[in-house]
Design brief:
This protein has about 140 residues and is mainly beta. The protein is about 5% helix and about 45% strand. A hairpin with a 3-residue loop joins strand 9 and strand 10.
């Protein structure tokens, strides 16, 4: 009886679907079980090829999954599956739109006090990206 030879996952098509935008924290990419679902898709290179499930491989590690630019995932075949090996897949983390930053606002309700010289006293508040300081 001949045993089934395991397929190396590096021979499959790997891609990351979805849009990822810088948000200051690590992008969490999941394993997709549909060809057009968001996340990692590992699929046989044929028309409508079989898509591997999260029981057949895992996301072993990720590099540069925080900053805008190219991020890389390492995928590893599950031990008790019909697959073997590892492969990598890259995806893009887009830059945050600068116009979105203008919507941020920080308010400190308590004033900031400082002494300047022997006779002057300063009071300040932080509003948005600006600090307003008035010295008396």
């Amino acid at each position: 009886m001949q045993s089934l030879q395991k397929k190396d996952i590096s021979e499959l098509n790997a891609r990351v679907n979805g849009t990822y935008t810088y948000n200051g924290i690590e992008q969490k990419v999941v394993i997709s079980t549909t060809a057009d679902g968001d996340g990692v898709v590992l699929q046989y290179p044929t028309t409508n090829g079989y898509i591997l499930t999260d029981k057949e491989y895992s996301i072993e590690s990720s590099e540069n999954a925080i900053n805008a630019g190219i991020a890389t995932l390492t995928l590893k075949a599950a031990e008790n599956s019909n697959y073997t090996g590892t492969t990598t897949v890259s995806y893009t983390i887009n830059q945050k739109d600068i116009n979105e930053l203008s919507k941020l606002r920080v308010d400190i309700t308590s004033p900031v006090y400082a002494k300047q010289g022997a006779d002057s006293f300063c009071e300040g508040k932080l509003w948005g990206f600006f600090q307003i300081i008035i010295c008396k």
